[in-house]
């Protein structure tokens, strides 16, 4: 039973992200490097926010404080990474031109570099997967057992709700990255602001899980509503449209 | 240096300086030197072209970095999986011959002192062994070196594999008779010896290198005392820095001597992403690109434990392609062939010692049961490795692979286990997502 729960939760939280990783990131060395570097940036943001949380002793019990600053740091590191990628772009382009593959492959690679949405997707996926992994990995390893969930009167939906929320956050981070990078390219900064607000909103709502008993409906529903909104937004930003879908499906 | 070698030697010596100083008379030599060079646009003394080339060299490493990511990750996965599943690997039993002092029953400063003493003993053994190896190499005692290497890998592939097998069986409570065990170990070890010291499929050779490194790392995790491991990791990367970069650093001497003699560095010590030693490629495949066959060397160390060397050196001619390898395998030429057929080695190389210490760090981090720490160390080490490889592309010389990675790894280990872990544990327990 515990093993089943483990696999269920793991696939629920990371299944789509891992398949995206395999199909979009894994095959291209340059994307893997971008991915790792991006997760490193997230890690630094986490480290700084933990440091702040750790340093401010009186507020240690109040997660809201650490949470808000953590969100802000994450967004800051998102922007910092954007700057870095922009700087490296020329170099990356050269690397691709000089890449291992033939001319055909080359033009494909350069398209990737030129395609900021795809790059944003890779970086966002790294952000999301790293944050998701950090949030869930210990819970998952505990879910293998031995133990009984909710024996002290806590909710016995702990694992499944954690996985659902992790999935939402992995995907949200991916979408947000696409949106904010596109916005930064176009220099329309209000969109970046909206992304920050979305992130704050989604994260702060999960504070409701802190209550006893937790109101999962009040945290998971808005998270998924935000997920759908951000998803559609990112889709539109990346140049998708309804007619595009129709054409793709062959209507 | 005899005639043919001069030509062969030219590409490896190319560095940024050469690009800048390159002039017309050198061109023909360059083009005759290796077949693949002639396929590339001729060198130009035009300054812009030069800049271009430097940039190209700088950014060519993406594929190479990935070629090392995969094996390093595999090695870490083996170690972490073993450490987290077979718990008897983390209960240290007895002391190590090289770290004789016991940390138990001492606390704080005393414990730190003991671990420092342990590390210094260990390190001095490492240094002495390295120097001995370099002296042997310098005076061309190849027989002794090969004997040494063979005995080392023999020990690893048979004895350590046996210990590992025993631990795993013990953990899962599986009984197995001696005959079966002997059969298993024999069938595991003999192909390994063949692959490492003679010849075998490249993939298999790489796999055995990875396995050897993880076995070694697991032995360290089991026998090194807690604090000693961390002090050791810090000091060994300093030693690595010294050995590779100092004017009289033993590994610098090793790399240079090997270069002078136009030889591969000893087998069984380095992981290579392409067929690199013993068999060389008689390569008539138009080797894709990269006029600048610069040779980067990455690092080296000798690290004797039970007489095992994990010397590391990596040559990174920044380009190579997968297609070549397949072809090469069908056109193997022994090293003893005349130098014309001995193509310059291509591909990335990383010392097995690097594998060992990377995995040691990650494995030790995972042995405390917190996956966040393991993940953080893993990402930090990979980032350190990529930075090292980028530096390699810039400096085009042997570089130690440990310092940056281990430095990042240590920082993230301590930061994560002390600061991030409580924060993340709390958020996870309250289901608060950041």
From TrEMBL, chain A:
Main subcellular location: membrane
Coiled coil regions, renumbered to chain: none
GO BP annotation list: Notch signaling pathway; protein processing
Membrane-spanning residues: 6-25, 32-57, 118-137, 157-176, 188-208, 214-236
One cellular component term from this protein's GO annotations in UniProt: membrane
Membrane topology classification: Multi-pass membrane protein
Keywords carried by this UniProt record: Membrane, Notch signaling pathway, Transmembrane, Transmembrane helix
KW Membrane (keyword) present: yes
Highest taxon above the source species: Eukaryota
Location of the protein in the cell: Membrane
Homology family: Belongs to the APH-1 family.
Protein's recorded name: Uncharacterized protein
Protein species of origin: Dimorphilus gyrociliatus
Automatic annotation (TrEMBL), chain B:
Principal location listed in the UniProt entry: endoplasmic reticulum
Protein EC: 3.4.23.-
UniProt region (Disordered), positions on chain: 1-47, 289-329
GO MF, one example: aspartic endopeptidase activity, intramembrane cleaving
Comp. bias (Polar residues): 1-18, 28-45, 302-314
GO cellular component, one term: endoplasmic reticulum membrane
Biological processes, Gene Ontology terms: amyloid-beta formation; calcium ion homeostasis; membrane protein ectodomain proteolysis; Notch signaling pathway; protein processing
Membrane topology: Multi-pass membrane protein
UniProt keyword annotation of Oxidoreductase present: no
A UniProt-annotated Pfam family: Presenilin
Keywords recorded for this protein, A-Z: Endoplasmic reticulum, Golgi apparatus, Hydrolase, Membrane, Notch signaling pathway, Protease, Transmembrane, Transmembrane helix
InterPro entries: Peptidase_A22A, Preselin/SPP, Presenilin_C
Localization per Swiss-Prot or TrEMBL: Endoplasmic reticulum membrane; Golgi apparatus membrane
Transmembrane segments: 68-89, 109-136, 148-166, 178-198, 207-224, 230-251, 374-395, 401-420
Low complexity bias spans: 318-329
Claim: Aminoacyl-tRNA synthetase is one of the keywords in the record: no
Role noted for this protein: Probable subunit of the gamma-secretase complex, an endoprotease complex that catalyzes the intramembrane cleavage of integral membrane proteins such as Notch receptors.
Stated family: Belongs to the peptidase A22A family.
Domain comment (free text): The PAL motif is required for normal active site conformation.
PANTHER family in UniProt: PRESENILIN, PRESENILIN HOMOLOG
Quaternary state and interactors: Homodimer.
Protein name as it appears in the record: Presenilin
Organism taxonomic ancestry: Eukaryota, Metazoa, Spiralia, Lophotrochozoa, Annelida
